[in-house]
Every structure is written in C-alpha cells, then in structure tokens.
User: Fold this.
Amino acid sequence: MQEFSVLVGGKAGDGINTTGYVIAQLLNHMGYYVFMYYDYPSLIKGGHNFTIIRAADERIGTHRENVDFILALNAETLQIHKNRMKNDTVKIFNGDLVKSEGISVPVSTILKSNNFPDVMKNSAIVGAFAKAAEIPWEVVKEVFILHEKKLTAENLLVAEKGYEASIISFPIQRRNDEPRPLLTGNEAVSLGLVNGGLDMYISYPMTPSSSVLHFLAENEDNFGLKVFHPESEIAVILTALGASYAGNKVAVGTSGGGFCLMTEGLSLSGQAEIPVVIFMAQRPGPSTGLPTYSGQTDLKFILNAGQGEFPRFIVAPGDPVEAYTWSKTAMDIAWKYQVPSFILSDKSLGESTYSFDNPVQSEINILSSDRQPEIPYNRYSEKNDGISPMAHPPFKGEIIKVNSYSHTDEGITTEDPEIVKRQVIKREIKEKMLLEEIENLPSVNLSGDKNADTALVSWGSNKWICREIARRHNLRAVQPVVLNPFPEKSLKNALKGVKKLILVEDSKRGQLLDLLTLSHINVDINIQKFDGRPNSIPELEEKILKVIS
Assistant:
C-alpha cells in the first residue's frame, strides 16, 4: 500500500481542523483515499490542537504515528511532535515566528504586504505544502474554489505566495481516481437518519454529538426537517416522545452525561411503546470526564438504562458507510418494533473524516409490519409477533391512548396481574422477533484471513485498525455491529475454528467482554486503551504481535 501522512498543529483558534480538511481535500483530488483524525482540548483558545491526515491508495480508517509532513503554525508544534518525525519528515512553518530547519515560509510578511488579516495565515502554509508535495497549482485552485468559501480569491492569493516560497521536497504521484466525498462519522449518521425518513431532530448540544445538530440545522430546509434545540436533555427526550406519538419520525442526540437525564424518558418509551432513535456519542467519564476525547465505556449503561424490562435495539457502526446504513436501519427498526433504538458512536468515529464510498450496496431492507389499525382501536392489542398496530392522531372516531402505567390492550391503567403478565410477555415476544430478524442481517462483519485461528474482535471505531492489522499479519478480524439484541449465533459462526481470541476495546473493565462472556465466548487476551486517544497502527500492532508470537 502506498501511503503518507501529514500533521498540522497549532493552538486552539488557529483553524487547525479547517486547515486539515483543506489538506485532506488536496490529497483527495490527487486520487487518494484519506482519513483525518482531529485532536483538541476543551478550550476555546489556547492549548494545542493538531490533526493527522493519512492518505493511501486503498481505503483506510485509522492513522499512523510517524508523519511525512509536519505543518507547524507555531514553534510548540515542532517540539510536541518531534517523536512523530522521521529522518526525512518535511517541516513547513511560519519562518517569521519559528526558527528551524525545513521549509520556512514568510507568512506574516506575506499577509502584511497584502494587508490581509492574520486568519489567512493557514492558506500560505497550505500553499507551501502543495508545492513541497508537487501538487499541481490547478489542483490547489480547484480545491480552494470548491471548499474554501470565505474570501476565496484572497485566500488563493495567499496560498499562491506560500506556493512560490516553497520547494519540492516529497513528491506525491497523482492517481487517476476521481475525488470521493469526504464525510465525518457524524455527517454520515445525519444522512442515514434522513434516508430513514427523519422528520424531526431534537438535541441539546454535547460533544461529541453536537455536530449532528449543527449539520442538520444548517440543512433543515434542504432535508425538509424540523430541528429543535430545547432547554435541557430532559426536554429533549420528552419532546421527542410527544413528536413521535403525533406521527413524526424523530431522533435525538446526546453523550453520556446528557443521556443520564434521559433515562426516565427512555423507560416511558419502553412502557408506552413509543418509537424513538437515540444517537449516543461516547466520551470518557465519569461526569464531565474528557469532553473532547473518545472512549467505549457506555455500552453497559445503554444496555441497562431505565427501570424495568423492555426491548431496545443497539447498533455500533465502525465507519461512515456503516453509520449511514445502520442509522437508517435504526430508524426502520424503531418504527417497525415500536422500541427505542440506539446508534452508539464515539468521538473517534464521529469527528474523524473519511473517504465515503457509495453505500447503496450496503443498504439493509427492513420490511415494515404494514399492520393497519383496527376499529375500535386498541393501542396495545396482543399479536403473535408482539407488534401492535400503531395509529397517530387524528384518527376519526377513535382516541389514541399511550400510557406509562401498566395497561390494558386499550391503554387503560390496570394492576390486574394477568393483564400485566400478558403485556410483559408481549414485549418479550417482540424482542425475540427482533433478534430473529437481526440474525438474518449483516450484524457481524468478518475480514482479514477468514480461516485464521487467531482472531481480533472489536466494535465501533476500532473496526478499521483491527481490519488493517489483521490483513497485514494474516489474522481474522471480527466486528459485531449490532450489540442488542446480541447476535450470538452470527458471532459464533464468524468465530468458528478460532483458537486464540484477542479483544480490542477502549475501556478499562471490558464493555464488550461481558457480553461475550454471557454468550459463552471465551476471550484469551483483552487489549485495553482508556486514555481518551484512539489506537494508532504501530501502537496496537506492537501489543498484538507480543501476544501472538
């Protein structure tokens, strides 16, 4: 595989993410697949921000530690990331502020001589990088016109000055592939929800879920949606249930701390059988934890949240294609089975940028129950599959009841033990039907050497790093995408013949480990990471090679 990596670093407020995205688009327009990881502290200004853009001639979904280019907007970047540099790493920096060996670009002088604001300094560094990588100027111009919407002509002029001040140092060969869409995981979730028929998105901002709210709000008119930001997470879930009762396909977004406030509303969804999709983007806790970093520590919370017993669907996509495909599926399942449906993500997936292949071939078709409400209407009438006909007001001549208490078929509160028992069994039957459908979907991914007797098992954003390492070392890579109802049968089929099972996840206690143990799947080695940062290839590869050698 032909590949190279670029690091852009500076302080918060320097526009590091935007600069990284422009670099990613340059490499995209040169015909490469790209992946961009963004690291930032929870500060508006100050601190150190950086992004690593990796490009390759085949699809990728993770980053490497060592970089071929380092674009430093301040001197601190070169010091902090000196361990990522190789002997031939190309250093590009503002020579008016930084003194070092490498490509010195007089950024401040360029801006001052043209009377341009300091905010344009990144364009000069981008231009210098393009020249160093021998990216043709027409590609730079195309990218700025398409993706740099603010002061395009001025930014292009600054970029051209940076281009002229640079030298060719690490030529990148142009490939024949056409540019691909670049999406973050959160943008893919958003588009998947829209594809699933989303009518209304309700959220209180909380990193790392906030960009779904922002993206859908910006495109509210284009998608024909209602996007609502209420005063609290309690208001979010209750408003969503009211909107769903009224006939809207609705989704909400939050992270762990916000979801804590939603748990009573979740139980209302379970008892009243009101469908809702909950996008839950994980970050390390407890409490505020690491607001801008990543973890996989909320699975057991989501599995057990809310009082009482009721079915729920949980899917944990591993890349934007899965995020798009399974977000639609989460919508379909929520409204077919009338259950709360979770899309469980994390910061690493949600805020990283990926090349996005056409996901049409990955579409999953969930057949609706197509059961028409009967007259007289009984909201919770018992059916063989546990799914009652669902009507929405207005329904001429009928009252549409929902109830948070134990209730009769008609929705009337009751404490009669036989009726209560029947409704509990009804919900249990619905969960069994859902599991049966899940086992017939592509709920478990298998890649690498499918006959290898050593397997890496991962979930969520660890998908691609495990897949890449498995391919390099002839291992089997197994990824359960659906986590509840747990596709035990499909997972055991994917693990047939495995003699050594290595679990990779971003938690200390092992969130998926417990599910595997309950399914009598024995894990030999559990490789854990719990500092908020994702694994890089060399880091995880070293740990795996130690235990398989």
